[in-house]
Every structure is written in structure tokens, then in C-alpha cells.
Design a protein that fits this description.
This protein is of the alpha/beta class. It contains eight helices and nine strands. The two termini are about 10 Å apart. Bound molecules: 2'-O-acetyl adenosine-5-diphosphoribose. 2'-O-acetyl adenosine-5-diphosphoribose binds next to helix 1 and helix 8.
Amino acid sequence: MPEPLVIDGDTRVLVLTGAGVSAESGIPTFRGAGGLWEQYRLEELATPEAFARDPGLVWRFYSYRREKAALAEPNPSHHALVALERRLGDRFLLATQNVDDLHRRAGSQRMVELHGNLFRTRCSACRREPFEDRRSYGPDSLPRCHCGALLRPHIVWFGEMLDPSHLERVDDFMREAASHRFVFLAAGTSGAVWPAAGFVEQARALGAGTWLVNADPAENTARFHHFVQGKSGEVLPKLLG
Ligand code: OAD
């Protein structure tokens, strides 16, 4: 460990997590080895165009991911973040790019799911609220809304906007944190997908000390003050303990 991460009675901590924190729970990352599903790359499946072209294929992919995530268990990374949240209360916020529900299952509460949640479904056309859904679908069992349109996973696909209220919550947290000791910590994310990849820049501009915990260097490693290379399930409990 290069130097201790100081979290005192004044500190605000914003944590950003990505697929790497679920890797030790057995859920494959997107850009690493095992990042392909069947022969498809994520970019060929996680788009509105892919869903329009072949909703059965896209549902089969998300059903597979539902099944995989439902069988997985939170790991020490998730638990370390829950322990930190319990210590800090409202001085803590978790923004996750993960859709696997493992943070919630571990006990995280002050959390923004930037990319949606695997276990929620919504209508592709009408304004019906997203609802909890753990079922599997495929080409022969495409789910439809009461309005007749196809139902789709409640996931932010490539080319789609994030929920503005989620970004607002992150912005508000950063703004409040700026007048205190402010720590921004990213873990298990390749720094390749925006806007989350830009949080480090925003946080730095507001005076945060910035930390990256990742198995490999990320695309934006140079933007962080501190880089701790390693598995998040091993590093986070020590760093935050
Ligand atoms: P990536 O798959 O791009 O990156 C995962 C990162 O985690 C890599 O940099 C790995 O080196 C690192 N890693 C792997 N195992 C680790 C471990 N045990 N401990 C720590 N780090 C580890 O995943 P994301 O950055 O999350 O969006 O990808 C961002 C978004 O791209 C995803 O949320 C997904 C995709 O578009 C949606 O599905 C909407």
C-alpha cells in the first residue's frame, strides 16, 4: 500500500465502481478475457439498434446475465463499501456502472445505478414505470407490455442518455463535498465509458484526492493522484479498513 487513505470526521467519499469489482464474484468483465458472449461483443448487443434488429438475441443475452448474476454472491469489495457507508452515512455516495445488483444485495443504500439494473424491465414505448423482473426471455418468448410494445431490459445502452437525476445526484454530492475533505475512489473500471470516466476530472477540479484501485491500468489512470494496482476484493478492505 503506497500511502494511507485518510478518512476523518470531515471526509466525504464518492466511490465509482465498474465490472472489475464483480469479477471476484465470477461475473466476467466487459473488456477483459471472457468479455465476449457467444461470438458477440458487448457493442453488438447493448444498443437500441441491436434490440430493434433482433430483440430475441438481446433478451437471450440479458437473460443469461440475469441467471449468472442471480447465482453470484457479493465479494469483499462489496462488503468493504457497505462498511464504509455505515461509518460515513450521508458523507458517502456510491455510483456504480454495474447492473448486477450485487452492491444492493451486499447492503449498499446510498447508491446510484448509472447504467440501470439487470433485474428490472421496462416498456420500449410507453411511460410505464420500470418493474422488478427476474424472468428469462428469448426469441420464442418475447415479453410485451399492456400497450402492445415490446418490453426491454432497464439498462442504459450505448448511445442512450443516462438518467439526468442520477448525474444530478452525483454532481450535488461533489459540490457539497468540495467544501470538506473530499475523496474520489474508482475501483474495477477501465475508464473507457463516459460520463463515468470523467468523474475523476470533475472531482479533481473540486479539490478531491483521487484514488484508482484496478487490476490493470485504466484508460484514465494518469488523471488519478494514486493508483493501487490489484484485485479490489483484496485492496479495498485494506485501503478502507
Ligand atoms: P470493463 O470490463 O471495461 O473494465 C473492468 C476493469 O476492471 C478492467 O480495467 C480490469 O482491469 C479491472 N478488473 C478486472 N478484475 C478486477 C478485480 N478483481 N479487481 C479490480 N479490478 C479488476 O468494465 P467497466 O469499466 O465497468 O455498461 O465498463 C463500463 C461499462 O461498459 C459497463 O458498465 C457496461 C459497458 O458498456 C453497460 O452495460 C451499460
